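Morning!

This is the sequence you dropped in the shared folder:
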Amino acid sequence: METEFHRIKRLPPYVFAEVNAMKARARAAGEDIIDFGMGNPDQPTPQHIVDKLVEAAQNPRAHRYSASRGIPGLRKAQAAYYQRRFGVEIDPESECIVTLGSKEGLANLAAAITSPGDILLVPNPSYPIHPFGFIIAGGSVRHVPVTPDAEFLKALERAVKHSVPKPVALVISYPSNPTAMVATLDFYGQVVDFCRHHGIYLLSDLAYSEIYFDGNPPPSVLQVPGAKDVCIEFTSMSKTYNMPGWRIGFAVGNKTLIGALTRIKSYLDYGAFTPIQVAATAALNGPQDCVEEIRQMYKARRDVLIDGLEAAGWSVPRPPASMFAWAPIPERFAHMGSIEFSKLLMQEAKVAVAPGIGFGEHGDSFVRIGLVENRHRIRQAVKNIKTFLNGGNYEAEDKAAVNS
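The structure's back. Tokens below.
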């Protein structure tokens, strides 16, 4: 029986599939592929957090169903984090919910607030769940620039003027995945004013709040007076504490949106395993030295990567935050597009990266490089890339055919 499901039809083919398949074949053949493709932290979770998980798991009472919106202690810990980090007061009862990672929270909020045909504003390029959470929910996405500047604000004006019906929500995410761009509090203030004026909900993804370099902590949009009138913000423990597989995130802010997400989740899950939530509480309330160590690790990796690529002849902007470098495809290979260049890089340099088009059509001139290998491996990757880029008899047009 051949069946076409409505929501599946709205999803394009997974653009990373070709590169991932090529990577799997190469590794099966015994090749050593240095993998910068997925933003998957490679270091262990700090030991005191693991110890708390083990301790909590010894209690049989913790093996029962948990609370869908998160245990009270964890919600209080997240509220305390917002107070000390951003100076923002959060009511843990009505303005905070625990999610199974920020991705799940974004997707379920999209399901909660989107009606068929609704228009949502999403930057391009962007993390895939930002547009596709709404597309799966039946909405239509209108793209805006990702740069946090005057052009972004002009695009919002055009979007409201020319969209029928009026947009329901706007997604923002700084530090950005994949571009690593950061926003200022002044920019946030202008976006909040715009959304309040036009009655548009504002969804902020702040997953990389603690992965920043050069001494400038990214602000929260909730620091803007009146932001909670329209805004909800998502954060995650995945990158901050090396806890990606634990699947703990948060949504805080506007009570109406928190209530909608809470109601949807009450039908879908019973929350994360209670010992995981207890351990997450210990992470937020405990010593934060590990956060600084993780931050410095990514900064050291960033510098090795960017300095090495510059020496190899590939000029890549130095990311001020996040765990990614957003690398423009070298001019010599620009005509290939990001998928073919990524495949070529893997074949010739044994380095895997994420094709920029996977984050939207405006990312096709870039590849995303994750800082998810140690410095020794990064140096080896840079050496391989330099050999590839400086190959005297190399012709991109000739090599492209082998990857088609």
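Headline: Residues 289-312 form the longest helix (24 residues).

More detail when I'm at my desk.
O.
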